[in-house]
Amino acid sequence: MNQDVWRARSAAHEHRVDELVGDHLARRDAGEKHPVFDFLFTYYSYRPAHLRRWHPGPGIVLSGEPPHAGWRGYRRTGDGVELDPVFVERRWPTVTWVRDLLAATASRPAFTGCFGLHEWAMVYRTRPGEVRHEDWPLRLGHEGTDAVVESHQVRCSHVDAFRFFTEDARPRNALQPTRDQQATLEQPGCLHANMDLYKWAYKLAPLVSSELITDAFELARDIRELDMRASPYDLSDLGYEPVRIETREGKAEYVAAQREFAARASGLRNRLIDVIDQIGELAAPPVSTSGSPS
To answer: Is the Cβ–Cβ distance between 232 and 140 less than 8 Å?
Structure first.
């Protein structure tokens, strides 16, 4: 890729990310919290500066003097700067773990009967001052929130959502997901599994393109809005109209949005799998090892 092309792609990417994270950075500098979007930079560990850094992805050689020459994961050859096969080999256990998880998730039908009750289970039988977003009231109060949990079957398959359930809520879940079961239980209708496509994309950086990582970030951002609109919190002062999953109409609204996100996520999941398969062509990897990614 000649210097003019990669410079243009890099600049376009930086501008895109600046538009996406500018409000967050302004709030951060002002010391302001946001119950919806802070999650994208606290639960997920990829900093805005990391998101802004442009990576071309596999199979691309950058001509001229790209800054990538001094970055981890790259090497200079006679043709230019490219991903380092030795780095690929070192990362191969993580790469294969992520691919196996993505493929297993894609192989299952989407379950759309959870209605976002994971957020309700995270505040079940708490007292004032114990909720995660203490600056925001519960729409139905504590007793009303507990009643919603008790009148539904909770069926959360996502281990990293389940681990935030209150102790009283955990036995009410139809599943008891653990890290070892992640590839067995994760399914493509789950909001959190689809938000996590962002995590799996950035964990593979710089082996995947920054455009793909940012596409996954945008999906996670959009899903997070639904996640919190369907939560027990009253966020109307921030302009978020609640999805009242305690009603029949609210359930239908939630499921319709969930299906749309599942369709978007399916395309991203397949793109990630395709890129991982390209990565595998860059080096002869060692024998795959089991275990979750580092």
So the answer is: yes
Full DSSP string of 70-135: GSTTEEE-SS-EEE-HHHHHHHHHHHHHHHHHHHHHHTSPPP---TTHHHHHTSTT--TT-STTTT
Q: Specify the DSSP class assigned to residue 161.
A: H
Dump pLDDT digits (tens) for 218-247. Answer: 999 999 999 999 999 999 999 999 999 999
Whose tokens are 């139809």? That residue is: 174
pTM: 0.94
pLDDT digit string, tens, across residues 51-73: 999 999 999 999 999 999 999 99
| CA-CA-CA-CA dihedral for 261, 27, 229, 108, to nearest 10 | 30
| Every domain of the chain and the residues it spans | 3-279
Task: Measure the CA–CA gap between 279 and 44, rounded to whole angstroms.
Answer: 24
Alpha-carbon distance of 62 to 40, in angstroms, equals 31
Q: The tokens of 70 are what?
A: 């001094």
pLDDT at 291: 54
Pair 74, 68: CB distance under 8 Å = yes
The residue type found at 38 is D
Alpha carbon distance 197, 179 (integer Å): 17
Closest CA to 245 of 139, 92, 132, 165: 139
Cβ–Cβ < 8 Å for 197, 269: yes
